[in-house]
């Protein structure tokens, strides 16, 4: 019988706190005085485009990169100047970093061997961890004889060996094909819940972050643009950067103020139908009378149609997601004239 995760990895989750943490590489400021608290037992995703500082942040938590300024606290203890091994963290690398000449079992047992643990004891312990990640049947295989997803499981088992209180994952799914990525994503989430420890996962995929995280931290140019639950961040993006980076939003402007409307909240009627406007608070963020547009493209995406709409007044294009059930190619197909509007409550103001 497979043992519950909590009996194989007996540890408690630790909070992670970053207090005014900066990272300077020569003249380049990669991370700029960020403050962040990740509650113990949370699944946190650091999300942002290439070069925004997410890997540097993860590596500073792990202790693989020195902190230029500020403090890193794990479980309430200041670990800023501590070695990686004494922080209670473990890291899973993008490339998995397995030893090619060792079997899966010996890869997991390697650090126990270095510490002089007897062969039987280390093989027993490594075997338990391989069982946890459903890899017992592949224990004697070398990494080259394993698929990407299987190598990832071995890397995870190895990282769990020392009972970490926080697991740090650097783009752990990026080397996998799309199908396996979705499957492994679900397993990561399940393991995190079963183990009950804090996971910090770096990704540039908003879809991955939305699917996995309890806490999404959106970064740009070394700053935290916004942090919150996936629902908060998606429904209430704070800045234009967050709205554009997450996608699925239209960024609109009226009299110098910016706001967003989710693509699936745009309302569309065939040309000539007068929109019925929900009560307007007079903020100017709804469009009484609607925007006359031409449908530029209608892309079928299974459950939805993604429509690109070109306003006749020459303002920037809008994106609409319409459910397959609502879509009528006669009325909303390419080149159709339509009227687009939105309700006041669906328009969300952005910080300047
Ligand atoms: N060792 C280094 N020396 C000099 N500059 C570095 C070093 N490591 C990172 N940088 C720079 O710091 C900035 C942040 O890099 P970092 O790797 O943290 O970003 P990232 O968001 O993880 O990017 P990616 O998704 O591409 O890995 C980048 O401009 C990068 O070029």
UniProtKB/TrEMBL annotation:
Highest taxon listed in the record's lineage: Bacteria
PROSITE patterns: ABC_TRANSPORTER_1 (PS00211), ABC_TRANSPORTER_2 (PS50893)
ABC transporter domain span: 16-246
InterPro entries documented for this protein: AAA+_ATPase (IPR003593), ABC_SmlMolc_Importer (IPR050093), ABC_transporter-like_ATP-bd (IPR003439), ABC_transporter-like_CS (IPR017871), P-loop_NTPase (IPR027417), Transp-assoc_OB_typ2 (IPR013611)
Protein name (database record): ABC spermidine/putrescine transporter, ATPase subunit
Biological source species: Caballeronia terrestris
SMART domains xref list: AAA (SM00382)
Gene Ontology molecular function: any one: ABC-type transporter activity
Native organism taxonomy: Bacteria, Pseudomonadati, Pseudomonadota, Betaproteobacteria, Burkholderiales
Keyword ATP-binding: yes
GO cellular component, one term: ATP-binding cassette (ABC) transporter complex
